[in-house]
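Interim report to the steering committee. The following record documents the input for ABC transporter ATP-binding protein (236 residues).
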Amino acid sequence: MYALEVTRLHKHYGKHRALDGVDLSVRSGEVYGLLGPNGAGKSTVLKTVLGLQRPNEGSIKLFGRPFDRTQLVAVGALIETPGLWPQLDALTHLRIHAKLRGVPAEWIADALAAVRLTEVRNRRVRALSLGMRWRLGIAIALLARPKLLLLDEPTNGLDPVGIREMRGIIRSLAADGTTILLSSHQLAEIAQVCDRVAVLVAGKTRYEGTLQGLAGDGDIEEGFFRILDAGGARIR
Ligand SMILES: Nc1ncnc2c1ncn2[C@@H]1O[C@H](COP(=O)(O)OP(=O)(O)OP(=O)(O)O)[C@@H](O)[C@H]1O
């Protein structure tokens, strides 16, 4: 059973083909990594899956059915930076989002615990570390108990402690049954948490499979660069 299937997805901005044939198949319960250099199209894929961008061609299936917006209640996402108010505390953020989305207030405690922010729930955002702000963004995404969670570069800008913390959170969410699709341009990050990966180069899927398959006879990094070189990777 697939949580998400993306087939021959195209997104053009004028003459620029941001997505030029993307195929992905994310199995229910797995942590799936979307890898690729800057400009490869990772964020555009996530935005298209969320209905924030309309594709020019291709299809998206969520939980085995063709995409329609009503399925998005089961999808949580943190794309780019979380929109937070510096003067409000973490708990107030979650209360506001719960109210707006009709989520029972009792679910707030679970979202806080899932991202390990229970202790600092009364701290204002301006006094939270960058890692804690990211985790609050994830807590907001988790409020409605999504089956599929999309995370765009969840370790961007974090120090090693923040990165380790994020990794632990991703692993425990997956252990609890949430399917996770995360994008990164940092191979080492993906290698530590993902079951399978796709490598996008210039808007095309150039590899999909396990990390062992990506490594081939060498190491994962060599396999990754081989695919980038074969796909004509360049900064776009
Ligand atoms: N709204 C837009 N208008 C025009 N071009 C865009 C727009 N959004 C993205 N692009 C272009 O589409 C391509 C893919 O961008 P995207 O942000 O999806 O890449 P990415 O893989 O997420 O990169 P990064 O790792 O830098 O975040 C890039 O060349 C980008 O400049």
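The helical segments are 42-49, 90-101, 107-114, 130-142, 160-175, 187-193, 211-215, 220-230. The committee is asked to note this result when reviewing the revised timeline.
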